[in-house]
Structure formats: structure tokens, C-alpha cells
Amino acid sequence: MTLLRRCAAAILALSLLPAAPALAQGAYPTKPIRLVVPFTPGAGTDTVARFVAQKLSERLGQQVVVENRTGAGGAIGAAEVAKAEPDGYTLLFVASPFTTVAASAKNPGYDPVGQFVPVAPIASGPLAFVVNPAVPATTMREFVELARREPGRLNYGSAGTGSVNHLALELLMARTGTTIVHVPYRGIADATKDLIAGTLQAMTASIPAALPLAADKRVRVLAVTGPKRIPQMPDVPSWQEQGVANAEVINYWGIVAPAGTPRDAIAKLNAETRRVLAQADVRERLEREGAELIPGEPERLGVLIASDLANWKKLIAEARLAFE
Asked: Which of 161, 157, 156, 155 minimizes the C-alpha distance to 71?
């Protein structure tokens, strides 16, 4: 089956889910909403989620309360929300690990298509490839040459096996013929601490997380993982510019809910999220942190999730990667 057909099939499956009951007109929400963030407090995705939650609270007239449920590259939080009551009061803030973990793990504990419905796309953008300043490389070419000369000497951290930080480096190694040792963590914040301390040599980080660290010279940014440079880091070239071809990695953010969540609730949440993203201060904040806003209907996020899932499954199969 072609990638296009796989994506189409996934979206069709979403459209065939049993119809959810409607809410009383104008009643939603009548109490605080729980927004599960499956990453550590203070991580780049967490800061974005909290900012969006604050703005949504103002729009909805009810608190959107962020709860961090970390571990297994985001799988623990996702599995918890998959089993939650589909009443519109438990949501999941997703990023690329939502699909990378599902693509790589034998039993991730959740199905990103069958157990969830998309609510609202928020933004997308590349990751930053960063190294400890002590690493003797100032460009990707130098880093790749170092890794080739001394296979297994360099290591990198991730938010867990199957996380986007993990698969991004697996993709890099597959495209460059290098061997870099993987060190998984429970969350990317712990990996970042060890990178700064020098225990780790490299990792990929979200742009919001990388910007202040680079400004303080606690890390060195060698590249962004998207197809081109970004305004927030105009002097940092992409992987592709530096000879790493066919290795584009894009992170995304969005909100999903358990399958069966009332359509009225989804419509309300989507409409208010789009209004939040239209606010000048929100747009400026997210764009300043390297994100491109992608407001739209829930189906836009559904297509993105299905496409990302298919792409990572294809990469894993082509590279013959095996995960526990």
C-alpha cells in the first residue's frame, strides 16, 4: 500500500468512528479541563502547552489545567488519556513523539489513530541539533567526520526509546553511516542537564529549549533538522545544507482527545484554539520560538498524525531498526 493510501485509510478510519453524543447547547465547558502533557515540566513542549492552556482558559471561561505525565517518550501520558472518559474534560497535548513512539514500540500502550480524535493543530517546526561546547566540532560535517573516525565514542540523549529525539539520531546515523551511542532518559529535561554537564555529547532539542541554552553558550547548535534555516537562528544551517540528505525531521504540536469525545466539545475547543492562535501575542511568541502556526480544522491534525506515523514506520522498516 502506498504512503498516500495509508494516510487516506487512516483518515477514513477516523471518520468512521462511532458518532459521539452531542452536548447541551452552550453548556460546554462547565468545569475545569485537564490537559495532559506527557513530557517533563520545563521542557520545550511543556512551556508551549502551558502558554496555550493559559490562553484557552481565558477564552473558555474555565481553567485548562496542565498535568505532566512523563515517561516512555510520552507513551505513559498518551496511554492514560486513551483510557480516559471521553467527555471533553481530558485532553492530550501532543508532539512528534506521539507518532514516533507508536511507530517504533512493539506495544506502545495506545493507538494514535484508533483511540484518539484530533481536536486542533497548533504549530510545527524543526528541531535543533546541539552538542556540548567541549565537542570538537563546529559544523555537522565536522561532527559526522568525528563520529566516523571513532565509532561509538560519541553519545546522544533522548526522551526515551522511540521518542523523536531518538529517531532523529537514528535517521542521522542511517544517512551518514555513523555509530553514536543512545542514552535514553525519562524526559528530555534530564538529558539536557547531562548535555550541559558534559555527560552527553549531543542531542536534538526543540527550538524553544535550544534558544536560551545557545544564547548562554551552554550548548552549541550545529544545525536545524528542517529543510531550511529559520528566522530565529539565521546563522544555523540545516542538515541538508551540510550534506545530510533525506533526513528532514519536523516536530509538531496539537491537541487530541479520547475517541468518542462529543463533537460539540471538539468544535468548541477547535474554534477557541484557532482564536487563540490568531492573537498577535500568541503568534509572536510561538514564531519567536521557531514554530510555524498551523491553525485549522481537526482534520488537518488528523492528516498530519497519519502522515507522520506512516513516514516513521517506513523509515524504521527501511533502516531495519529494531526496538524493544
From this structure: 161
- What stretch of H or E contains 127? strand 116-131
Which of 200, 223, 242 delimits the end of a domain?
242
Q: Does residue 15 surpass a pLDDT of 50?
A: no
Residues 262, 263, 264, 268, CA torsion sign? positive
> How far is 118 from 261, CA to CA, in rounded Å?
10
Q: Please say if the pLDDT value at position 322 is more than 50.
A: yes
> For the chain, what is the domain count?
2
Q: Which three cell numbers stand for residue 229?
A: 534555516
Residues 122, 254 contacting (CB under 8 angstroms): yes
Residue 112 — φ and ψ, nearest 5°? -65, -20
Count the Cβ atoms, other than its own, within 10 Å of residue 19: 8
Range list of β-strands (E), 201-241? 202-206, 220-224
Task: Write out pLDDT tens, residues 230-270.
Answer: 999 999 999 999 999 989 999 999 999 999 999 999 999 99
**Is residue 84 one of the residues assigned to a domain?**
yes
Residues 256 and 277 in one domain: yes
CATH number at residue 49: 3.40.190.150
Residues 92, 201 share a domain: no
pLDDT at 8 over 60: no
45-55: pLDDT as tens digits: 898 999 999 99
Bridging pattern class, strands 33-37 and 90-95? parallel
- Quote the pLDDT of residue 20: 53
**Same domain for 88 and 174?**
no
Q: Which residues pair with 251 in a beta bridge?
A: 125
C-alpha distance from residue 301 to each of 22, 135, 216, 307 (Å): 22, 38, 35, 10
